[in-house]
Amino acid sequence: VGGVFSMYFFDVNFSVAVAVGFIALFGIAVETGVLMIVYMNEAMRDSAMELGNGRLSMEDIRQAVFSGAVMRVRPKLMTVMADMIRLMPILLATGVGSDVMKPITIPFVFGLITSTLFVLIVLPLVYQLVKEHELRKHGKIEYLELKD
User: Fold this and answer.
1) Which residue from 17, 24, 115, 118 has the highest number of Cβ atoms inside 10 Å of its Cβ?
2) What confidence tens digit (pLDDT) does each residue in 25-66 have?
3) Where are the beta strands (DSSP E) in the chain?
4) How far apart are CA 18 and CA 101, in angstroms?
5) CA distances to 7, 25, 61, 98, 103 from 95, in Å
6) Which of 36-64 are b and which e, b meaning 16 or more Cβ less than 10 Å from the residue's Cβ?
7) Element (H, E) at 5
8) Rounded distance between C-alpha atoms, residue 111 and residue 7, angstroms
């Protein structure tokens, strides 16, 4: 969403360079989203094992989602800040070649902002709602066992 709005704001037409920026953005956004779900899933599994019977309540689900999501806040913000700081010189450049590189960085930088908000706020909320619905419907929570 941030990448699309940035194209409108900076009056950039969709091109191959913009598509490359979106591809890079999608890669980072999907990776961090999957990692967030993995951490919340592990926190859910750990909470179920602590209880012994494996039965989680609504409050246990909230606590597990919160503890799993909190573990990813600092790494996500560090990744976003490193990417944005790395790309700021390209975004602010006016010299030779900047007309080629700017269309790549514009959707990438501004898309990182909205993907960060999505991964840190919206994704844990949706995950919690899905798990609460699953508990109400089936009476138990399914979580994936990760194997190396």
Assistant:
1) 115
2) 899 889 889 989 888 888 888 887 777 666 778 888 888 888
3) none
4) 9
5) 20, 24, 53, 6, 14
6) bbebbbbbbbebbeeeeeeebeeebbeeb
7) helix 2-9
8) 10
Collapse the DSSP code of 81 into the 3-class scheme (helix H, G, I; strand E, B; otherwise coil) and give the result. helix
Residue carrying the six token digits 């890079």: 24
Per-residue pLDDT, 53: 65
13: helix, strand or coil: coil
Which residues have C-beta within 8 Å of that of residue 17, sequence separation ≥ 6? 100, 101, 103, 104
Query: Could you tell me how many residues make up the chain?
Result: 148
Q: Token pair for residue 34?
A: 């999957």
How many C-beta atoms lie closer than 10 Å to residue 121's C-beta? 11
Amino acid at 3: G
